[in-house]
């Protein structure tokens, strides 16, 4: 879809996953055994054929840069266009922009050089299989200034509380934007807008000392702009807290949830060549996701193991998420636990959290 250029804005995404975001931004947090949260929106844009994607980052993005590289898994390693990772630039002495608008202002050449006439704008906290081509066609059919992408959730959970809600009429027009917690129409922090209008609104916001595009350009002008709402009806999860990360991760152990996220269209990620998982004679694994490179000699139940995890004989893991290259020694017991990368749990230790509040161990820790 050469008419679309992508913007993934991570500037406003706070580090809300506690220990998991000590050393990385939220978009780089590992998910589902082999992915990162950023992979899902990147893959959605790839499947829509978006040729140019700008990633706005500000802090703790070393892990993200290592993961994305030149963008090859998403077909963005090109001689012209492709993936642009754009930290804000403070070298312009005349720059008065602040917040996320600073990214747009100081990287305006990205928009001006691109041939696409429309911008698809997103964050990374809403995991989905949105078809941006379909949303773009809907935007054109509505003759809207901006189309906001939303989903109607069946069950409101704590992670939905900070989300913006939309009132959408039968004609597809957004009639109100608000934060009523009992409202089921969740704005997914994605929108489509004509590039010319987008840059005009950015310029106006900066001139008035504003700093946040959605709040200051769209929300404050909701009575003046022609805003439509595109309803997305597929898999959706919001990852904006440790509890939501833990629950939505383990929900993927349900085949219908896993299939709805991964079977409709593939999710691309950084390629790592690992040997297949090895199960010793003493291994007992049930209802779990186990990535390549693992070696298991203990009991694993209802858990997710990332690449290269070692589970020694006699160890028992239940309802837990064990990230890359962790070592679980003999006779360790883990229940309702999240271990970040490269954690070592020594022989005979027992760590137990609660299903509503998992026990988390930060990266590179030895216990």
TrEMBL record:
Transmembrane segments: none annotated. Keywords: Glycogen biosynthesis, Nucleotidyltransferase, Transferase. GO terms for molecular function: glucose-1-phosphate adenylyltransferase activity. CDD domains: ADP_Glucose_PP, LbH_G1P_AT_C. It comes from the Bacteria. It is an enzyme of class 2 (transferase). One of its GO terms (biological process) is glycogen biosynthetic process. Its EC number is 2.7.7.27. Residues 19-178 form the Nucleotidyl transferase domain. InterPro entries: ADP-Glc_PPase, GlgDAde_trans, GlmU/GlgC-like_hexapep, NTP_transferase_dom, Nucleotide-diphossugar_trans, Trimer_LpxA-like_sf. It holds the Pfam family Hexapep_GlmU. Residues 282-351 form the Glucose-1-phosphate adenylyltransferase/Bifunctional protein GlmU-like C-terminal hexapeptide domain. Belongs to the bacterial/plant glucose-1-phosphate adenylyltransferase family. This is Glucose-1-phosphate adenylyltransferase subunit GlgD. It comes from Paenibacillus dendrobii. The gene is glgD.
């Amino acid at each position: 879809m050469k008419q679309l250029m992508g913007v993934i804005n991570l500037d406003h995404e706070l580090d809300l996953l506690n220990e998991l975001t000590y050393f990385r931004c939220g978009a780089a947090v590992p998910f589902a055994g082999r992915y990162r949260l950023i992979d899902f929106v990147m893959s959605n844009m790839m499947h829509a054929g978006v040729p140019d994607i700008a990633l706005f980052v500000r802090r703790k993005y070393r892990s993200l840069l290592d993961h994305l590289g030149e963008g090859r898994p998403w077909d963005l390693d090109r001689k012209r266009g492709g993936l642009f990772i754009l930290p804000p630039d403070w070298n312009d002495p005349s720059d008065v922009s602040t917040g996320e608008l600073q990214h747009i202002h100081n990287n305006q050449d990205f928009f001006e050089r691109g041939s696409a006439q429309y911008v698809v704008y997103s964050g990374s906290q809403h995991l989905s299989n949105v078809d941006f081509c379909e949303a773009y066609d809907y935007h054109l059919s509505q003759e809207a200034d901006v189309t906001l992408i939303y989903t109607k959730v069946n069950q409101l959970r704590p992670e939905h509380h900070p989300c913006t809600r939309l009132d959408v009429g039968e004609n597809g027009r957004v009639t109100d934007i608000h934060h009523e917690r009992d409202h089921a129409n969740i704005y997914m922090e994605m929108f489509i807008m004509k590039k010319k209008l987008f840059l005009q609104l950015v310029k106006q916001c900066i001139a008035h000392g504003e700093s946040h595009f959605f709040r200051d350009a769209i929300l404050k002008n909701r009575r003046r702009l022609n805003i439509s709402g595109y309803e997305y009806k597929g898999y959706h999860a919001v990852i904006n807290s440790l509890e939501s990360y833990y629950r939505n991760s383990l929900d993927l152990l349900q085949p219908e949830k896993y299939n709805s996220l991964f079977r409709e269209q593939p999710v691309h990620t950084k390629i790592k060549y690992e040997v297949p998982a090895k199960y010793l004679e003493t291994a007992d694994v049930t209802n779990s996701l186990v990535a390549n490179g693992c070696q298991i000699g203990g009991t694993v139940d209802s858990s997710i193991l990332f690449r290269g995890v070692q589970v020694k004989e006699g160890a028992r893991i239940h309802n837990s998420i064990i990230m890359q290259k962790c070592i679980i020694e003999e006779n360790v017991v883990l229940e309702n636990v999240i271990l970040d990368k490269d954690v070592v749990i020594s022989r005979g230790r027992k760590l137990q959290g609660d299903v509503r509040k998992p026990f988390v161990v930060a990266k590179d820790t030895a216990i």
